[in-house]
């Protein structure tokens, strides 16, 4: 589920000599000249050395410390480098988990294990958040809630995860990701109808080509005649994708509502949801899933499942640092990069020609989210 801030120069460093009162050295004075100390700073140090006779190196060392404290740019560059690292990691992990999960669901023995797979991911999420909330890490402070008010949100989360996996299972990766672009207009529509929240007119205009692009893809994708070995999209795929978008949009709106009502951030809310949702789905597994035997399923698929769980943990961890260190614009850019990367790689893997009729819809939808 913070904003980056520029570091301010530390307060002036003070030193006390036994024979004199304290002498304050302003770190801003130590770098008035690019090549070294200013004249006033040099004169002060020289007078101190003549009067009291301490080693000159002590004052030079102190001056270096003050000069180092006066370089906020170093801290800013370090913060930006860390933020770039977490954004890159989040992007790679998100792209990787989509293709990893798709490879898992392509195996017939795991195609009927949707609820079990979602349960596994929810427990991985709960474990990750529990570790991040411990005092020795303390990335966020847990805010426990009663079970009853969390049940509707946890139910929506479970349905969101399951239908996302179903959409990925029965769709091409390109269509799966493009359909998720509809989250933005769907959330805007729900907020307008039920919460009387509107968006700027110019922003609303950008939603029209977005919806048109997805409509074009939805129309031509089931009729596509691209490489026969590639994953085909059917009308069932379109239904599952649109259902996933609707459920996910409701879940997104509810998250914002819960955060305002209970004054919790996204990680505190997810910390309460994940274990509840995991237990709810675990109860359903005997009635909904047909689990493969350990011997029947290929070993590499079990390895991929563990890898998928690790990617889920990395996504949750990196998302925390992105939210804490990046603004809304930066977070949006990261989302666009992930969408473009998944769509492009999905198109390449499907071996589809650029002249495919749904290509226009892809370009139109992608262009609308970038603009």
Structure explained in plain terms:
It is a single chain. Helix 8 crosses helix 10 (235-262). With 371 residues, the protein is mainly alpha-helical. A hairpin with a 7-residue loop joins strand 1 and strand 2. It is built from 14 helices and 2 strands; from the N terminus they run ββαααααααααααααα.
Give the SSE map:
Elements: E1 13-15, E2 23-25, H1 39-52, H2 56-69, H3 72-105, H4 108-111, H5 114-133, H6 147-169, H7 173-179, H8 183-195, H9 201-220, H10 235-262, H11 266-288, H12 299-325, H13 328-349, H14 359-370
Helix pairs in contact: 3-12, 3-13, 5-11, 5-12, 6-10, 6-11, 7-13, 8-10, 9-14, 13-14
Tally of separate helices: 14
Number of strands: 2
Beta-strand fraction estimate: under 5%
The SSE string, one letter per element, is EEHHHHHHHHHHHHHH
Q: How many angstroms does the end-to-end distance come to?
A: 24 Å
Structural class by helix and strand composition: mainly alpha
**pLDDT below 50 for ≥5 consecutive residues: which ranges?**
1-54
- Strands of the widest sheet, in order across it, are 1-2
Helix content: over 70%
pLDDT averaged residue by residue: 78
The main sheet comes to: 2 strands, antiparallel
**Radius of gyration using CA atoms only:** 28 Å
What overall form do the CA principal axes indicate? globular
């Amino acid at each position: 589920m913070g904003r980056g801030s520029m570091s301010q120069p530390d307060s002036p460093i003070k030193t006390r000599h036994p024979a004199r009162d304290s002498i304050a050295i302003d770190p801003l004075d130590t770098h008035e000249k690019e090549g070294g100390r200013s004249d006033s700073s040099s004169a002060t140090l020289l007078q101190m050395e003549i009067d009291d006779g301490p080693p000159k190196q002590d004052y030079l060392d102190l001056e270096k410390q003050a000069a180092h404290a006066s370089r906020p740019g170093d801290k800013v560059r370090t913060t930006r480098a860390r933020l770039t690292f977490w954004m890159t990691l989040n992007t790679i992990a998100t792209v990787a988990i989509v293709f990893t999960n798709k490879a898992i669901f392509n195996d017939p023995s795991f195609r009927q294990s949707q609820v079990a797979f979602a349960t596994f991911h929810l427990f991985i999420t709960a474990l990750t958040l529990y570790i991040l909330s411990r005092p020795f890490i303390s990335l966020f402070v847990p805010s426990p809630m009663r079970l009853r008010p969390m049940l509707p949100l946890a139910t929506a989360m479970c349905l969101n995860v399951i239908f996302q996996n179903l959409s990925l299972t029965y769709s091409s990766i390109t269509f799966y990701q493009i359909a998720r672009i509809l989250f933005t207009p769907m959330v805007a529509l729900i907020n307008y109808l039920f919460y009387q929240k509107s968006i700027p007119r110019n922003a609303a205009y950008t939603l029209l080509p977005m919806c048109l692009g997805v409509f074009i893809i939805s129309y031509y994708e089931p009729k596509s005649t691209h490489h026969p070995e590639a994953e085909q999209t059917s009308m069932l795929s379109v239904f599952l994708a649109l259902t996933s978008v609707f459920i996910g949009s409701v879940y997104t709106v509810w998250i914002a509502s819960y955060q305002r009502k209970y004054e919790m951030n996204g990680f505190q809310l997810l910390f309460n949801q994940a274990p509840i949702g995991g237990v709810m789905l675990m109860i359903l597994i005997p009635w909904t899933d047909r689990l493969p035997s350990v011997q029947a399923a290929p070993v590499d698929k079990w390895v991929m499942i563990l890898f998928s769980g690790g990617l889920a943990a990395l996504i949750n961890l990196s998302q925390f640092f992105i939210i804490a260190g990046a603004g809304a614009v930066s977070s949006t850019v990261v989302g666009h990069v992930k969408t473009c990367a998944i769509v492009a790689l999905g198109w390449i893997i499907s071996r589809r020609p650029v002249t495919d009729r749904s290509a226009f819809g892809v370009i139109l939808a992608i262009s609308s989210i970038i603009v």
